[in-house]
Amino acid sequence: MDSYQENYQEEIEYLRKALAFIEEEVEKEAKNLEEKKSDLIAARKDMYENTIHASSDFESLVDINLHSMQINNYISSYNPQRFKNLKKMINSPYFGRFDFIEKGCSEKENIYIGLYNLMDRNTGRVYVYDWRAPISSIFYRYELGEVMYDTPAGISRGDVSLKRQYKIWNSKLKYFFDCSVRITDEILQEVLSQNTSAKMKNIIETIQKEQDIIIRDRDHELLIVQGTAGSGKTSIALHRIAFLLYEGLNSNLRSNEVVILSPNTVFSHYISSVLPELGEENVEQSVFDDLISEVFQGRFGEETRDMQLETLIHSRGKTSGEVRRQSIDFKGSRVFKQILDRLLWYYAHRLIPFEDVYYNGTILATRQQLKNRFLHNEIGIPMAKQLKIIETFLLKKVHPLQKKRLQRLEKIVEKSEGHEFEIKSFSRLLAIRQAVAFRERIRKFTIVDYRDLYMLLFKNHGLLLKLARGLTLPETNKEIILTTLQNLQKGQVHYEDYAPLLYLKLKIEGNDVVSGIKHVVIDEAQDYTPLQYEVFRILYNNATYTVLGDIRQTIEKTADGLLYDDISEILNKGKMIKLSLNKGYRSTCEINTFAQALLGEGTQQGYASIERHGEEPKVIPQETLEAMDRSIVEDIAKFTEQGYESIAVICKTQGEAEKVFGRLKKSVQLTLIKPRGGEVTKGPLVIPTYMAKGLEFDVVIGYDVSKENYVSDFDRQLLYITCTRALHRLVIYYKGDKSPLI
Ligand SMILES: Nc1ncnc2c1ncn2[C@@H]1O[C@H](COP(=O)(O)OP(=O)(O)OP(=O)(O)O)[C@@H](O)[C@H]1O
C-alpha cells in the first residue's frame, strides 16, 4: 500500500468512528429530549390538576409558585440545540485537520476542525474541535512548522507537522489533500467558482488568515475594518458574532445582547441564514429606518433612505440637488452636532420660559429659584426628566393649598347667586378647573418638545447663525434653513432630519429606547453619518463595536477616509484598532480589474484579487432602448442555459428599474426588487444599484451606462457598486455615447 492509500484508509476509519459516535449521541440526545418533554407535560398536567387556579390563600400561592418553578426548570433544561448541531454534523463532521505537538509534550495530537465540538464526555476524547475553539486558529493562521495560539491561560506554542483539508458530503469522504503538498487555496477556488445563492453562506472552511485575525479579535472595544468590495466584510462580521458568542470563550455574551445594523431589509434577509447555520440564533438585526419609525411612530411622514437616495440621484446637476446634498452632509456632520449641543445649552440657559409661580396669592417659587434648581443638575439628568421633577415639586407644593382654596371657593359660591343647591359640587368643579389651569401654566416651561426645539433653529435664522459662530457652514446655508423650515411647518421632515431629531430626543428625554446591548456590528459603515454614530453611541452606550465599511462604496457623499477617524472619536472606546482588507474574493480577476479601473489612477494601490479567471467584461453599444431590451432578454436566456442561477439587471434608480422591469417582463420571467422588500430570490431580477449594495449575483447586466446616465463622480461610485456585485460575468450596455467613466 502506498502512503496515500494508507492515509486514505486511516481517514476512512476516523470518519467511520466519528460518524458512529455522532449517531450514538444523536440517539441519546433524542431520548433525553423526549424524556424532558414528557416530564414537562407531566408537570404541567400535575399543576393543572393539583393546584388551585386562583387563590389568595398563602399556602396555595406557595404551591402554585413551586409548580411553576419546576416547570420553568424543565423548560430551561429543554435545549434542542445540541441535538440540532449533531444532526448537522452527520453530513460533514469536519473539514480540516492539523497534527500538533505542544511545546513540552511528546505526544502528537491530530486536531480535526468542524462546525461544532464533538467530544466523548466519558473518555475525554475530542473527535472534532469547534472552528471557534482557541486551538483551531492554528488551522487558519499557519502552514507547517512553529505555531502559537491564544489560550485563556496565555500563549501556547508548538509545532505543526501536517495540515489537511477534506471534502465530506452526505457522510462520505469525497477527497482530501495535504495543504503542504498541493496549493492551499484549492478549496477556496472551488467555493468561489460556484454559483452564489439567494442567501449568504458561511465560509468556515476557507477563512483566510487576515480575516481570521479580525474574526477572533478580543482585545479591542472598537474594531474598524475598511475593506474593498468583496473582501468578506459581511461574512467576517457574521463569523465574528458567532465567535464572540462561542461558549468556550466564557465571554458571557448572549445572542440577544448583540445587534447587527443592516442597510435595508433586503440585505437583512440575505444574511439571515448564516448565524443559524453556525448554530447561533436570536441575534437581532436592525435597520436604521425601522428604528426611526419605531421611535417617531410616523410623526414626521414616511421618507425612507431609499426615497432620499432616489431624489438625490434624480436631482444631480440641478441647484435643488446641490442644496439637498449639502443639506444631507451638513445635517449629518459633527459641526451640526456641535450646533445641536449649543442649541440644547442655549435653550436650558436662556430660553426656558421659567416664571414666578403663585397659587392662591402665595408665591411657591420665583423664576430664579426654578432656574437655579434646574441648572443645578450635577448628575446629568436629561432635561425633560429634570423639568418633570420641577413640575412634580410644584404640584406637591400646591397640593395642601388646594384644600384651603376649595374652602374659600365654597364660601364664595355660597354668596353667589344661582348655585345654592350645588355649593359643594360647583366649588369642586371650579377647583378642578383652577388646578388644570395651574398645571397648564407651569407646563409652559416644564414641557420641552424636541421637534419644537429643532424647528426653533430654522425658524429663527439668526439663531442658527449665532449658534454656529466659529464653525463652517455650507455655502447654501440660507436655502437649507428655508427649505427645512418649510418642510417642518408642513409637518414633514426629510430623511436627513431624522438623526438630528433623534439626537435631540435622546439628549432631552434620555435613552429609554434600547438597552442591554453589549455588542454592536455596523455593516456598510460608510452609509452612516457622524451624527448617526452619535446616536448609536447614546443608544448602545456600554457596548463594544465592530464597524465594517468601504469608503469607495458611498453613494450620496464623497469618499472620505476621515469618516473612520470620526467614528473612532465619536464612539470613544479606550482600545481601538483599524484594519484593512485589500483582497477581493467575490469576482473574477477580469471583473475586479475592470471595476478597480473605474475608480481611476492611484486608487488600486495595495489592491489584490483572488486568482480566479473568467471572461472579460463586455461593454456593448445599442442603437435604441428597444434593442437593449432585446439583447438583455437574449443574455438572460443564454446565461440561464449556461447554468448561472442569479442574474441581475442593475439600473441606476428605482424609477428606471420599474420601467425596465415593465418592458422585460413581457418577454422573460423575472422579479423586480423593491425597497423595503423581502427576500431576493434566485433567477433573473431587476434592481436599482443602491438596493444591490452588499448583495452579489452570478451575472450582472449594467443597464444603460451611457454618457447621459453616468457622468459625475457620484455616478462613478454607483457604477463601481454595480460592477463589483458580479461573481462570474459582467455585461454593460449603453445607448448613444458610452459613459466617460468606463
Ligand atoms: N475566506 C473566504 N472563503 C470563501 N468565500 C469567501 C471568503 N471571503 C469572502 N468570500 C466570499 O466573497 C464574497 C464577498 O463576501 P462579502 O459579501 O462578505 O464581502 P464584502 O466585503 O461585505 O463585500 P461588499 O462590500 O462588496 O458588499 C461572498 O460570496 C463570500 O462568501
From TrEMBL:
One matching Pfam family: UvrD-helicase
Source superkingdom: Bacteria
GO cellular component: cytosol
Ranges of residues in domain UvrD-like helicase ATP-binding: 206-588
Keyword Coiled coil attached: yes
Name this protein carries in UniProt: Helicase IV
Any one GO biological process: recombinational repair
Annotated organism of origin: Desulfosporosinus acididurans
Keywords: ATP-binding, Coiled coil, Helicase, Hydrolase, Nucleotide-binding
InterPro entries, alphabetized: DNA_helicase_UvrD/REP (IPR000212), P-loop_NTPase (IPR027417), UvrD-like_ATP-bd (IPR014016)
Coiled-coil region: 5-50
Catalytic EC class: hydrolase
SUPFAM superfamilies in UniProt: P-loop containing nucleoside triphosphate hydrolases
Sequence positions that bind ATP: G227, T228, A229, G230, S231, G232, K233, T234
Gene Ontology molecular function terms on file: 3'-5' DNA helicase activity; ATP binding; DNA binding; hydrolase activity
EC identifiers of the protein: 3.6.4.12
